[in-house]
Write a structure and sequence with these properties.
Chain lengths: 401, 134
Amino acid sequence: MEEYKVNKTIKQINEKIKRGEAVVINAEEMVDIVKKEGIVDAAKKVDVVTTGTFGTMCSSGAFINFGHTTPRIKAYKAWLNDVPVYAGLAAVDLFIGATSVKEGDPLNKVHPGNFSYGGGHVIEDLIAKKTLELRVEGYGTDCYPRNSFTKKITIRDLSYATLCNPRNACQNYTCAINTSDKTVYTYMGILKPHMANATYSSAGQLSPLLNDPFYLTIAIGTRILLGGGIGYVAFPGTQHNPNVERTERGIVLSAAGTLACIGDMEKMNPAFVRGASILGYGTSLTIGIGIPIPILNEEIAYFTGIGDEDIYVYIEDYGSDYPQNKEKTYGKVSYKQLKSGYIEINGKRISSSPMSSYFEAIEVAETLKSWIKDKKFLLSEPQEKLPQAKKYKPRKYIRDE
Amino acid sequence: MVSKKVILTFKKEVVDKPIVCELPKEFDLTFNILEAKILPRREGVLIMELIGEEEKLQKGLDYLIQNNVIVEFVEQKIKRDEEKCYHCGICISVCPPEALVIDDKKTMKVSFYPDRCIACGWCVKVCPVKAMSL
């Protein structure tokens, strides 16, 4: 194994942060620096690259504890603002799932349904310190005799409120089209028939795991910006799969890596956590996540130097293939092409539009940058690596030295 | 020549009267009907673009108002709550006149041009955070 020319440690970078000397830039700015100065000089110069993503992530939720009542109740069923929450835990612990829909919602009975309020909105309202109605039913036990409990609460009344998202920050995703002859209303937005439009959902060159494609620095225990507060990577996310098709630069072509994220809701900012109503699909949570990548060597500089033109995604049909779970693609397209506003499939020009906000993703990366520059945020040492890609070897994927 | 997109509401009392037909005859205005419907309480709503000389267009609008038609301008009714909008871009694919569009491919900010709006209401339906209203 060849040695790296640049070798830094997280400890050294943290010392520089504390002295106010660390060079911190966002992943968009890193693209140019690597292009102009090369990976070795970029690695010498830059200490931390901040990444960001701001998108709808359904596999999100929150654990809360509403405190013991007098007399005590063991929650059997529970609702927050009429949104059913999961009570199959200890007496006063609840889990709010982002896609849980308010009771009585017509759902898709009149298609496409509006899904105006759900778990994602409950989470947003809690973080925004709004008042919500908590309604709990118990079945009565000798130790928990009470049968029902209703109270107006805010997050301040809760003894515990932790965002706990089983799957966030997918490494890559797909580009969605609709080849059928009717409009479909999907979690990838409205897709018009006969491939009239295409949608995509990733921050591309700014996205955390696309800047660390082999999970060399993003690991279990990584301190991150989660919903405008501080959070942590708790574990690999559900469906984390490092052994997928990759480009010669090591960039994945599908969702691949994912992160389970956890953080204290009380310190989050509602500007970075938004309840979402996806027409015809359901409710969800849109959240901003920013992850710092320490530039420990030139290989990490290389990976953070990727631009939208280097990142490709498969085009999939959400009109019939995706719902039927058929594996078929309509080719690949780069984020640079997608962001230009149109793509071409079989010679047909199709307008493309995003689902996740690049504009806010920059805001996330810049916020994290300012925290580090202001010495408010130090990098954490990884506790354990995420499941690694079998094919990875150091330096193997570096192409343009 | 100027153009204005208007939302005309015809109360029950005037819904069956021929009023709009006077606009091309008396005021030399061209119009393009974007939507026309009768609501359950026999109230008519007509969304149209009016094109003509500025002075005549104003006279035409005055004529409508004199005949008890409620006149509203589309560009004043369509609103984006800038606090709520987070520039995801979901609305772009459903906005036929490109009133919502990403011009700046670097920032990917969604630009909003109310004067292009044709009041179809799709952005209102599709916006995940209800930032659009009409």
